[in-house]
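Hey L., structure's done. Input below.
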Amino acid sequence: MTQLKAGDAAPPFQAPDQAGRVVRLADYAGGKLLLYFYPKANTGG
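Output:
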């Protein structure tokens, strides 16, 4: 697994959104995007 540090560029990825549609990082090229990662469900953020 890749360990990212603060300021690193996010690697290309895709994931389903809450409606089940596939969203790709490339869909937001040229815009701003905030990614929030958490280690486990039900933990403080």
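The beta strands are 14-16, 22-24. The chain has no helices and two strands.

-- N.
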